[in-house]
Amino acid sequence: MSTTARFSGKVVLVTGSSNGIGRATAILFAQEGAKVTITGRNAQRLEDTKQEILKAGIPEDHVLAIATDLATEEGQDKLINETIQKFGKLDILVNNAGAAFNDDEAKTGVDQNVSIYDKIMQINLRSVVTLTQKAKKYLVEAKGEVVNVSSIAAGPQAYPALPYYAMSKSALNQYTRSVAIDLIQHGVRVNSVSPGAVATGFRQAMGMPVETYEKYTQFLQSHKECIPYGSIGQPIDIAHIIAFLADRKLSSYIIGQTIVADGGSTLVMGMQAHNMMDILKS
Ligand code: NDP
C-alpha cells in the first residue's frame, strides 16, 4: 500500500458496508489507503466485504469488521469505541446504512402503517443523528468529514408509494445542511450524496424476489422518462462521489450540499415524457 494514496493515514467508518453502496465505498477507501471500519447486521455479508478488501491486497490490520444493529445505541457505541480502540482516531464518517420497509398489508400513501414510519425513521434518521453525536468529539479532533447517503426520493417530487422513506431522506437533507453549518466552525465538513436507482440489495431487503427486481430494473432502463442515462447506477458510481466529498483536497469548499447522482431521473417531468407533437398530430 503506497503511503501517497489519497486516504493514507485516514480512518473511515462506513455504516451499511455489508452490502451495496457501503460495501463499494469501504473497498474504495481501503484501496486508496484508509483504515476502515465496516459494519452491518449480517455477519456473512460483512465477512464477504472483508474478504473483497483483503483480495484487493489490503493488509488485514487495516480492516475492522463489527456485526451490530445500528438502530441501537449499544450498536453505535460499539462502532465508535472499537474504532477508536483499534485505530486511535476517526477522520471520516459515512452515514450510509438505510432501508425502506413495506407495510404487511401492502398499504401505501396515507394508509401506510405508522409502525413503518417508526422503523424507517429509526434507521434512516435517528441513527444518523445519534451516531454523529457520538462521533463528533473525534471528528472535531481530526478536523474530519461526514458524508451522508440520502436519496432522490427526498424530493421535491412526491413519493406516494413510500412516503415515510421519502420523508426520512428529506429530513436527512435538512440535517446535513444544519449540522454542516454547526460543525464547520470546528473544521468538520458535512455533505451528502443523493443517488437515484442503484443496483444493490436495497429492494431485496424489502422482500422483492430477484426475478421481480430484474424486471423492475429492465423497465427503468428501457424507459427514458425513468432513467435518461439508460442504465441503473452501480454502487461504485456512488462510492466515487462519497470519496470526492470526503477528500478535502478536492471538495474543501463544498459545505452542507447534496450531490445528485441519478442518471438524469429527477430532471424529467411527467409532461415531457411523451412526444406531444406526435400525440397532437394523431
Ligand atoms: P443495501 O440493502 O444493499 O445496503 C444497506 C446496508 O445498510 C446494508 O449493509 C445493511 O446491512 C445496512 N443496514 C440496514 N439496516 C441496518 C441496521 N438496522 N443496522 C445495521 N446495518 C443496517 O442498500 P443500498 O446500498 O442501496 O443502501 C445504502 C444507502 O443508499 C441507503 O441509505 C439507501 O437509502 C440509499 N439509497 C439507495 C438507493 C438504491 O437505489 N439502491 C437509491 C437512493 C438511496 P445488514 O443488512 O447487514 O444489516
List the helices and strands and how they pair.
Elements: E1 11-14, H1 20-31, E2 35-40, H2 43-55, E3 63-67, H3 73-87, E4 92-95, H4 114-142, E5 145-149, H5 163-184, E6 189-195, H6 202-205, H7 210-222, H8 235-246, H9 248-251, E7 258-261, H10 276-281
The chain binds NADPH dihydro-nicotinamide-adenine-dinucleotide phosphate (NDP).
Compact description:
Pfam families: adh_short_C2 (PF13561). The protein has 282 residues and is of the alpha/beta class. It contains 10 helices and 7 strands.
Describe the overall structure.
Keywords: Oxidoreductase. InterPro entries: NAD(P)-bd_dom_sf, Sc_DH/Rdtase_CS, SDR_fam. With 282 residues, the protein is α/β, with parallel strands linked by helices. The chain has one domain: NAD(P)-binding Rossmann-like Domain (Rossmann fold), CATH 3.40.50.720. The chain contains 10 helices and 7 strands. It has a 7-stranded parallel β-sheet with strand order 3-2-1-4-5-6-7, sandwiched between helices. The mean pLDDT is 95. NADPH dihydro-nicotinamide-adenine-dinucleotide phosphate binds next to helix 1 and helix 6.
Labels describing this entry:
282 residues, alpha/beta, seven-stranded parallel β-sheet, binds NADPH dihydro-nicotinamide-adenine-dinucleotide phosphate, NAD(P)-bd_dom_sf, oxidoreductase activity
CATH superfamily: NAD(P)-binding Rossmann-like Domain
State the secondary-structure class: alpha/beta
CATH class: Alpha Beta
The description of the largest β-sheet is: 7 strands, parallel
